[in-house]
Amino acid sequence: MASSYKFQGWIALDKESAKGNMVWQEYEPKAWTEDDVDIKITHCGICGSDLHTLRSGWGATNYPACVGHEVAGTAVKPECEECASGLENHCTKMVGTYNGIYPDGSKSYGGYADYCRAPSHFVIKIPDGLSLVEAAPMLCGGITTWSPLVNNGAGPSKRVGIVGIGGLGHFGLLWARVWGAKRSLRSPDQVQKKPTQRRWVL
């Protein structure tokens, strides 16, 4: 299916891209299938995994690459339904949001771009009242902390321990607060101290 728009993004050509040496250029998205959705990107969060991929820190990156998996925007073709299938992120045949290879041999490109194309069952509708700028970082740090808290029954009768208050820790604190759990925060430098010197913050 032909598009009236171009797929362009910040492209990493080699390991030096992690030092800010990405280039804005056009790229070829995966071949369109009827199960896909194209998204006009308005916001994309920044995750540590983006930097690892840019510098080939988790194995060789398939350059050129466009990173960014915390993508928020508007579906431009077609409208899509939410996915409720469960644990597809554990599938051995999973194709990541970026730096992945689809079964047809085409590459996946991420959200540091104008548009991206993805299988529609991985696309969810952002609820009315939640801005896309607020939603984008929730698509990694938010779900990474939300899932274990839900799966372990966080709530008023539980205590939740958080080590560090970075990209993930602050979401863990927010979720625990919303659910009424008691919260304990420990900074990474406190982990290095002797147990009697550690300070807990509620």
The CATH class name of the largest domain reads: Alpha Beta
Full CATH superfamily name of the largest domain: Medium-chain alcohol dehydrogenases, catalytic domain
- CATH fold node name of the largest domain: Quinone Oxidoreductase, Chain A, domain 1
- Strand tally, please? 7
Q: Going across the major beta sheet, what is the strand order? A: 4-3-5
CATH architecture of the largest domain: Alpha-Beta Complex
- How large is the share of residues in beta strands? 15-25%
The profile of the biggest β sheet is: 3 strands, antiparallel
Computed CA radius of gyration, to the nearest angstrom: 19 Å
Average pLDDT, rounded to a whole number, is: 83
Apparent shape? globular
Uncertain ranges = 81-85, 195-202
Structure class: alpha+beta
Helix content: 10-25%
**For this entry, what is the oligomeric state of its chains?**
single chain
Distance between the termini: 54 Å
Keywords: Metal-binding, Oxidoreductase, Zinc
InterPro entries: ADH-like_N, CAD-like, GroES-like_sf, NAD(P)-bd_dom_sf
Organism: Monilinia fructigena
Protein name: Alcohol dehydrogenase-like N-terminal domain-containing protein
Q: How would the blueprint of this fold be written?
A:
Layout: E1 8-11, E2 23-26, E3 36-45, H1 48-54, E4 70-77, E5 115-119, H2 132-135, H3 141-151, E6 159-163, H4 169-178, E7 182-186, H5 188-191
Parallel strand pairs: 6-7
Antiparallel strand pairs: 1-2, 3-4, 3-5
